[in-house]
Write a structure and sequence with these properties.
By secondary structure, this protein is α/β, with parallel strands linked by helices. 44% of the residues lie in helices and 9% in strands. It contains nine helices and five strands. Helix 4 links the parallel strand 3 and strand 4.
Length: 225
């Protein structure tokens, strides 16, 4: 049977505050984002595994605060004084910074307070668990307000799957999500990869979305992004 050519057309995920699903695993982080600008400090660190919702919450805050997004790779050569004076900032992936990047972040953290600004940072590991090479930065970040996003429970994972299917404008049978929940890896990253694989396989083979197709995808194990 001929397979349909699948074009890699991007879909636009919904990233507004109303689209973020709140559960026990992330409610502390959501509350801290919602509390801005009444933060207890100029900085906030969100940590959690890939796909746990850090970037979604960071984008919610960026839109609300009109913050600029700073790439970790650009930080070592940036004008830190000008950056700190430019307004609220989002810096994702502080656990991947080089030693030079850590020195730049230390100065940015200090100048953010002096300038009366705000800095939202994300990391896959909690600041207390990450082996920063710069002791002064480690001390500063371990004292900063921090919220950890945990692994999703069944209710949250079901909601995430429904949202991912909806983002792609896919109608799925009621039996599909209950079939997936006990069989898939327990992470939002796995849910994203699984929905993408189901969408592609359905289009390529002109097959309906359902448990039978899902079983085949799960057996071969979709790669996570």
């Amino acid at each position: 049977m001929a397979r349909q050519l699948v074009l890699a057309l991007p879909h636009r995920p919904a990233l507004g505050r109303e689209d973020f699903l709140v559960a026990a695993s992330n409610e502390t982080a959501v509350a801290m984002i919602d509390a801005w600008p009444d933060w207890s400090a100029p900085w906030l660190v969100l940590s959690g595994p890939a796909g746990s919702g850090k970037s979604h919450l960071a984008e919610v805050w960026r839109m609300r605060s009109d913050a600029r997004h700073v790439a970790p790779a650009d930080l070592p050569d940036a004008d830190i004084a000008a950056l700190a004076a430019s307004g609220p900032l989002v810096l994702e992936g502080i656990d991947a910074l080089s030693e030079k990047g850590e020195r730049a972040l230390f100065h940015l953290v200090n100048l953010t307070r002096e300038e009366g600004g705000f800095l939202l940072m994300t990391s896959r590991t909690a600041p207390a668990q990450h082996p920063f090479t710069l002791p002064d930065l480690a001390s500063r970040l371990r004292a900063a307000p921090h919220a950890e996003l945990g692994s999703p429970d069944d209710d949250l994972l079901a909601g995430v799957l429904a949202k991912l299917f909806d983002d792609r404008q896919l109608n799925v049978p009621e039996t599909l999500i209950p079939f997936l929940l006990p069989r898939m890896e327990r992470s939002v990253a796995a849910a994203r990869a699984l929905v993408a694989a189901l969408d592609e396989a359905s289009l390529a083979g002109k097959r309906p979305l359902g448990p039978r197709l899902a079983a085949e995808i799960l057996e071969r194990g979709p790669a996570q992004d």
